[in-house]
Design brief:
The protein has 18 helices and three strands. The chain has helices spanning 2-19, 27-48, 50-80, 86-93, 99-114, 121-146, 155-184, 187-193, 198-224, 232-258, 261-267, 271-298, 314-333, 341-348, 352-364, 389-397, 414-431, 436-446; strands at 339-340, 368-370, 377-380. It has a three-stranded antiparallel beta sheet with strand order 1-3-2. It is a multi-pass membrane protein.
Length: 449
């Protein structure tokens, strides 16, 4: 009986789940099937181990950059008079470590206070800032991996964006904490606490504040760090999942840490460091997992049974490339809103990772250019009136040929050469000098989109 039930469940997860047409289902069943599919692809991604490796690398980078990061934040917060809030925040973050968390916080604060930024000199200060920026850059690379983004921020954008996080971020966080604390001490709030049922409601909301702050922090990270435009709703969904998992894991890890006294006998003084590294790993892993949730929410077309990236055949690459040039040129010629990777992926029904590779190849060949916005839009890389369609087709067919090491003469055989030349001649005769701009104009006259 159990074996039959297990067999049916297995067949459903690997076959039936992906054959259901969710558009024809009621809303509750549709969300149920969608949730099962998301759960399936998340478990599959976890089994691949890429997130675990990224989390491990971030642990190492954090250990090297944590004190410099806090030193820079400490210097900024000191100018605003809220530098004393760093220690309570660290205590809250490391609360699952119990007494060991208090000891680690004390040592970190001691290191930070011993760093005197004013006596470091220009070279020392530059190295300090570089260490902090390298940490954020490593975090961005991990989030770009989750979002299948290959292009990183430019050097100028790195300094402007990263420094804004380092300088403005801590001030906003501690300001929010201070406002929350002040609100709880307000006379009106205190009067409400003495009235029922308002008192119970206020106390319950007060207990939700840490979770709400963590969710807000996760949401902000998901929106800002990846080098792409992340929708607020998708980032919020990821923040809710990630924040909830972080809180639950914190309670579980606190129970584990409270019974870890036996590890002191095994690892001696290294036990506290090991526990700290484990908690850092879990925190980074949960943060990246929430980013995966946000990614799949924003790109539902990526939720598919097979994990392999969909490859483009030459025929599909040629058709998709011409469609991209057609859409981008039409928007450019008529002053419409530019097409982005996300909108092109939705319009063409193609996976964003594979389409992104095609767009990158088209950029390298000068067919496309992108704006400098955070979510770049594409426009023609050359004058559409001077860009024949047959040249675009030739460029698309030549993708992947750069750096070919063999002698081209080895591929030359007279019968084959004649067939290929006849094909090129037929294309030139049929298409002639038709340009990409001509295609965009034909769409207006024919009324096609």
């Amino acid at each position: 009986m159990l074996s039959r039930l297990f067999s049916r469940l297995w067949d459903f997860l690997f076959s039936g789940l992906w054959e259901v047409e969710i558009e024809q289902l009621s809303r509750p069943r549709r969300w149920g099937i969608y949730s099962l599919r998301v759960g399936y692809v998340l478990v599959r991604d976890l089994q691949e181990g890429a997130l675990a490796l990224r989390a491990m690398s971030l642990v190492y980078t954090t250990l090297l950059s944590l004190v410099p990061l806090l030193a820079v934040s400490f210097s900024v917060l000191k100018a605003f008079g809220v530098h004393n809030q760093i220690e309570p925040l660290l205590l809250n973050v490391l609360a699952p470590l119990g007494e060991q968390g208090v000891e680690i916080t004390t040592r970190i604060i001691g290191f930070v206070e011993n760093i005197q930024v004013g006596v470091l000199g220009s070279v020392g200060l530059a190295f300090l800032v570089y260490t902090v920026i390298s940490l954020i850059q490593k975090i961005e690379e991990s989030f770009n991996f989750v979002w299948h983004i290959k292009q990183v921020r430019s050097i100028s954008r790195r300094f402007s964006d990263y420094l804004s996080v380092i300088i403005i971020g801590p001030v906003l966080v501690f300001t929010a904490i201070g406002i929350t604390a002040s609100a709880m001490n307000n006379a009106i709030v205190q009067a409400l606490l003495e009235m029922e049922p308002f008192g119970t409601v206020v106390v319950a909301l007060g207990r939700l504040v840490p979770y709400l702050l963590i969710t807000a922090a996760f949401t902000f990270v998901y929106m800002f760090v990846p080098n792409t435009s992340v929708r607020v709703r998708s980032a919020l969904i990821g923040g809710i999942v990630g924040g909830g998992l972080w809180q639950i894991t914190g309670y579980a890890f606190a129970a584990f840490a409270s019974g870890s006294t036996r590890y002191d006998a095994i690892y001696s003084g290294f036990a506290i460091l090991i526990m700290f590294m484990i908690w850092l790993y879990l925190s980074w892993f949960i943060l990246l997992f929430g980013a995966k949730v946000a990614y799949y929410h924003q790109h539902p077309q990526q939720i598919r049974r097979e994990a392999e990236r969909i490859g483009f055949s030459n025929r599909l690459r040629e058709r998709a490339g011409l469609l991209v040039m057609y859409l981008v040129t039409r928007a450019y010629e008529h002053g419409e809103k530019g097409w982005t990777l996300d909108t092109l992926s939705q319009r063409l029904g193609l996976p964003g990772d594979s389409l992104g590779d095609l767009l990158l190849d088209m950029e390298r060949r000068g067919l496309l250019m992108e704006t400098g916005a955070e979510d770049p839009a594409y426009f023609p890389g050359r004058d559409p009136a001077e860009l024949p369609v047959r040249d675009v087709m030739a460029q698309l067919r030549s993708i992947g040929e750069h750096g070919y090491p063999l002698d081209r003469r080895a591929l030359s055989v007279t019968p084959i050469d004649e067939v290929l030349e006849a094909t090129e001649s037929a294309i030139k005769e049929r298409i002639g000098e038709l340009t990409i701009k001509d295609l965009a104009r034909q769409s207006r006259t024919s009324g096609q989109s």
